[in-house]
Amino acid sequence: MHSSKTAAALALAAALGLGGAAPAGAQGGSPGGLAQPGEPATARPGVLGRIGIDQRIGERIPLDLPFVDESGREVRLGDYFGARPVVLALVYYECPMLCTQVLNGLVTALGVMEFEPGREFEVVAVSFNPKEGPGLASQKKANYLDRYGRPHTADGWHFLTGPPESIARLTEAVGFRYEYDDDIGQFAHGAAIEVLTPKGTIARYFYGIEYSARDLRLGVIEASEERVGSVIDDVLLLCFHYDPATGKYGATILGLVRLGGIATVLAFVGFLTISLRRERARNSASGPREPLEGNRPEGPAGERARAVVGPREPDDMRPRAPGDPAPPAGRT
Fold this sequence. Notes:
The chain is α+β, with helices and mostly antiparallel strands. Helix content is 36%, strand content 15%. It has 8 helices and 13 strands. Strand 4 (86-91), helix 2 and strand 5 form a beta-alpha-beta unit.
């Protein structure tokens, strides 16, 4: 009996795309998903036709929902919003396959980012299994914090459990459709993480179980209204645009043209600056020019100029051309 359930679970995971390039599987409105935009859920048979992820970009989630954190403390979802963007993962902690892969992929992406939980954003994992409690949540947090390898970020990681009402309202607001499958004794669901603004507005969906660190960084920057990030990130946001259909950032022709224009202007300004500096250096090396005889100033300034140029030769000491008159007698 146990082996048959395991085989069924593996088959369901394969159907959800766990082994493929787009493991978001049962996600409505995403490539590789079970339903394209406008396609009814009933277009797929059985449980697979009733699960998916419907994007709610621009909509706010309810922040007054009660949950319990990994320490057993009663909290409100809004306790983790207000200051920073939030990376949200809807999972359940006893999931043997897909949820573990989602969290593994998240930790892997965060591991190569300079941004850290608790500083630029918060990580909030919420179990959609109402039977799970803070004990499991605490174990999951310890495991993933150890895997992440930055223990000083512990206050930025939050693993929550809660009552059915809170779970239902949150999953509905995010567009996360799932269902319990009695045949395998597990939940059937899609795979994705979401990035929300500090006010609780859904900004980005990232599908699957592997996430690009670049895309996640850009998503956090945009969700923060660009209050974090660098000049380089601003340039990347000019060139890369988020595509809701794929849940990824892709290069845009207009963005690349803009970047090319900016690069051209900067190169021209740099060329002018270098040319002016070289011209000034040449002028400085050649020194001051000797003024013409008739243009030498009189008075103290003229004396200084003559001192620099040297004393004037007497007329009788200068070489004369044939026919020049002799100097007056008695002149020295």
